[in-house]
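FIELD: query
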Amino acid sequence: MRMRAKPWARPELLASGYFEAEPWKVKGRWAERFAKKQPIHLELGCGKGYFAGPLALQNPGWNVVAVDRKDEVLGPARRLISAAFKAQERPVDNLLLTAFDIERILDIFSPEDRVARIYINFCNPWSVGRDHKHRLTHTRQLQKYKAFLEPGGEIRFKTDNEELFRWSKFYLREAGEFTITYETGDLHRSDFEGNIVTEHEQRFSSEGMPICFLIARYDPQSRQSAPVPK
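FIELD: result
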């Protein structure tokens, strides 16, 4: 479905004070864009901000960068985030939004941008075989994330798509240097605490669909192997 144009989105984003319009110019210097030097947490495919906003609001000791491709998505995210921070009487000083193609993430992040944690929530499963390479958890993407993910840093991944979940575990092992430290096929019935429910997650779970979730730690020099999912 084609996204409806939102002419107001870019002007509002530019006026917000927490939108990076030219992220390629910040490559290697993301820490300087925040009021305080703190661990950087990165959400890839942030959608309308239902995750990034609460993440930054609940964790003032973290700096959050939230990326999506379109202003039409980030515009509503800005409105939601601004309202949430205003309700808490807090300035939005530990969150940045930016619009960019995540498959080209190395054009805007470098080894100097040390990221403590990456979040990937309900990304496109790209079900057609030849399109699998576009998955944000695909092996070729994981290799890119290694360039700026801190040793000991994490990737946290949520999806309602069980096939994508199985393949993502395979990709993590195929990429090497990732150790899956936690996984569940039904997040809302698991022992995991501190989950932030996204817009898609709320809809899927209300329809009775289980949510798959994993945490993978980046351990440079370690290797794992796994059979190809059927």
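FIELD: remark
The chain has one domain: 9-218.
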